[in-house]
Structures are given as structure tokens and as C-alpha cells.
Amino acid sequence: MLNTLVSSPPSSVVLATDLDGTLLAGPLPARRYLRELFSGNIPHAKLIFVTGRGLESILPVLNDPMVPRPHYIIADVGATVLYGDTLLPVFPLQQEISYKWPGTQVVLDALSTFDYLERQSVPQERRCSFLVREGLIDDRLREVVEALGCELLFSAQKYLDVLPKGIGKGSTLKKLCEHFNFKSQNVVTAGDTLNDLSMFKESFSSIVVGGAEPALIHAVCDCESVYLSCAEGCAGILEGLKHYQFLETQKPAVVQDVGRSDLVMVYHRLPFDELPNGTRRKPKSPNGIMPTLLNFFTSGIKGVWVAWSQQASRNPENFDVHVVVDADKYPNLHASRIPLLPHDVDLFYKKFSKEAFWPIIFSFPDKAEFHQEHYYPMAKGDYRKFIAM
Predict the structure, then answer these.
(1) Count of CB atoms within 10 A of residue 303's CB?
(2) Bridge-partner residues for 159, per DSSP?
(3) For residues 71 and 86, what is the distance between their CA atoms, to the nearest angstrom?
(4) What is the pTM of this model?
(5) Neighbouring-strand partners of residue 248
(6) CA 34 to chain centroid
(7) Before 92, cis peptide (omega within 30)?
(8) First-to-final CA distance of the chain
(9) What DSSP letter does each residue of 143-210 carry, written as one string?
(10) Torsion over CA: 84, 87, 91, 93 (sign)
(11) Cα–Cα distance between 162 and 130 in angstroms, integer?
């Protein structure tokens, strides 16, 4: 259990965090808890993605249910700045950055003689990214880049970015906070590689998460405004937020990552047949998979078998949700029954699943017969009933 709880700070936190190795890393319970914090549990809190990724590679993250939706996105190592909901540029900040960029083709042409530069095959806007060994970066390269009105950023001992001069994660974040009047004492930055260093050099409280690039740790070890977390990823962010007193430990949060069952089986049928008089019997025609699945519980491990139970109501009276399967053969196995109407079973299981879903997953798309009303209850006016289950 994560022993953390949202406190009531004077003003809400603005978390500006890197993605890879930071927000997208760490133990699952910590990721869940951080998602809850920035999904409305801290009033007026703001979340800013600050990443080296381009927008195209950020889109899958935005669709990840484990990741909270950001209010703003700083991408391309600071060269792109967007609203998190609409993905539209934040003006005039984006316009000012664009004015400083000489153009991708201009940069590539100027660097074409440097054979040791390998262009990264990632989406890039207003920057050029390469793979290179640190020892190969020489003064001649620096001079050419400076003549372009740009600068170099090297990180993780292999990534080299050519950026508009004065542009980076830190400078763009600072301008974004000034633009929206975020007080610097409420802003907390988090990261794990050298391309996050510019954030830590601004007047913000900062968190270097566990497992960070050694060069970054060395660069910030004397900075009083930087907290070095022991935990990695999201757990490190939570540790840092606690250090800066945006979280407290007076009460435990209700975040539990371990349940009572060692194994949870979710199946479309119960491991027994239910008779109209309420009694149960061994499945009349058990298929091959059911005995195999039940064998997992013969050793006595604690488990639950989740399946639907056909009932006359979705809220039947005197209905036991949890029942023992077979006290002799499986002493620690319980069935968790979900009451469904005959109409529910017929609509989804007998029609949608058998006629459309199963032929597709078994690679017989030509056999599939899809009818929207079988899949989407709203088409028959049943949507509210399904939500009420």
C-alpha cells in the first residue's frame, strides 16, 4: 500500500515531468496513484508533459488509461508547446520558437559532411536529432551549429539534438509558466536524463527519480532545489512531492495492489451448471478448457472465478454474488457471479460473440456477421440499463 495522501497546500502543484523513465516508469500502484492525483484529486493541479518525444509518438501515451491527461505538452526537447486537450500550439510561445529555427533541411545540409552523425528515425519538429558517440563531437561541429543559430544537446551518452539557440525543456517551461502566471514555488519538475537538466536550472523545485542517468545526478548533486529520489519512475515523483510537502503521510491512501486471491479467472461460463430450483451440478457438457482451468485450483491456492449468471433481474433478491465452487476439490476457490438477464446473454454472448467476435479472433473474418445493435445497447435504448449494472 502506498502510504501517501493529498494534503492541502497553500496553492496547488504544477507538475512538469519527463515521460520515458519518469512518468511512464515505476511500479504499477504508484502509476495508478499518480494518475488519480492528477485526475481531479488535487484541486486546480496542473500536469505538463515535458519530453524529447515528438507529438506523433506522444499520441499513444494520451490514449493510455494509466496515464493522466496533461494540461499542456512541451515536446521535441522544448521546441514544441501545445495545449493538452486540443493539441493546438500555445501562442505566442510556439511562434517565437519557430522564428528561431533555420529550417530542418538547412540544418541537415550544413551537417551533411559529418559522417559520424546518424539521423534518428523519430518524429521531429524544429529540431534535428542524431545518434552519436560522445567522443566524436568536436569543435568543428559546434562551430557549424552555432553559425546556424542553434545549439547542441547531448544526453544518455548517445542522443544528440540540434535545437534553436536558447530553446530547451527548461526555457520553454519557464515561458509557459510565466504565460499562464504559474507561481514558481508551486512548480515541481521531474526527470531522469541530461536533457532534463535545463528544467532543474530554473527556479523550480525539482525531482531526479531513481535510476537516473549518472551524468545528470553528478550535474545536480550540489543543487539545493533538486531532490534525489530513491524510488524509480512514478514512485520517485511521489517521493519528491512528499518531500516538497505537496503530499503528506498522516493518513494512508486507499491504493491496494494485493488482493485476497492468488489467481483470478475471468471466463464466460461458471464452473458449474445452475438449475432453475437454485441448485448446482457439474457441467453437463464441459468443454476441454474448463477442466484444465479448474486444475489450477486443485493445489488449494486462493482464487476467484468470475463469470455471468443468468437471472430474472440484474439486482435479484437474496442473490449470493460469491459462492463456493466445490469445497472438497477446490477448497479455496469461490465463484463471483455477475447477474445478467436472458436478453443480455442472448445479445452479447450468443449473438455478438458467436457471430462476430469469435470468427474474427479465430481468423475467419469471412464468417463474421456484425450487427451494431448486438454490440451497442444504446441502439435499442438499453444503454442506461447497462450502465446501472
Answers:
(1) 20
(2) 131, 155
(3) 10
(4) 0.64
(5) 5
(6) 10
(7) yes
(8) 29
(9) HHHHHTTEEEEEETTTEEEEEETT-SHHHHHHHHHHHTT--GGGEEEEESSGGGHHHHTSSSEEEEEE
(10) positive
(11) 8
Q: Which of 355, 363, 362 is closest to 375 using CA atoms?
A: 355
Rounded distance between C-alpha atoms, residue 98 and residue 263, angstroms: 54
- Closest by Cα among 343, 326, 325, 344 to 335: 325
Q: What is the DSSP pairing of strand 5-6 with strand 247-248?
A: antiparallel
Look at residue 27 in the predicted model and tell me its pLDDT: 92
Unique residue bearing C-alpha cell 535545437: 163
Q: What is the pLDDT of residues 211-257, one digit of tens each?
A: 999 999 999 988 889 999 999 999 999 999 999 998 865 444 444 44
Instruction: Choose among 323, 272, 315, 320: nearest CA to 293.
Output: 272
Our measurement of the distance from residue 154's CA atom to the centroid of its chain's CA atoms, rounded to an integer in Å, reads: 26
Distance CA 162, CA 79 (A): 10
Identify the residue whose cell numbers are 470468427: 359
Superfamily of domain 1-257: HAD superfamily/HAD-like (3.40.50.1000)
- Is beta strand 14-17 parallel, antiparallel or unpaired with respect to 46-50? parallel
Contact 293, 267 (CB under 8 A): yes
Which has the closest alpha carbon to 69: 61, 77, 81, 79? Answer: 61
Confidence of residue 102 (pLDDT cuts 50, 70, 90): very high
Contact 19, 45 (CB under 8 A): no
| Residue appearing with cell numbers 463471483 | 336
Residue 179 sits at φ, ψ, to 5 deg, of -60, -40
Which amino acid belongs to residue 32?
R
SS3 230: strand
Residue among 286, 275, 351 at smallest CA distance from 309: 275
d(CA 298, CA 363): 34
Work out the angle at residue 327's Cα, subtended by the Cα atoms of residues 325 and 333, and round it to the nearest 5 degrees: 50
Residue 375's pLDDT is what? 60
| DSSP secondary structure of 54-118 | -HHHHHHHHT-TTSPPPSEEEEGGGTEEEETTT--B-TTHHHHHHHH---HHHHHHHTTT-TT-E
Q: Where are the domains of the chain?
A: 1-257, 263-340, 344-387
Instruction: For residue 277, name the pLDDT band (cuts at 50, 70, 90).
Output: confident
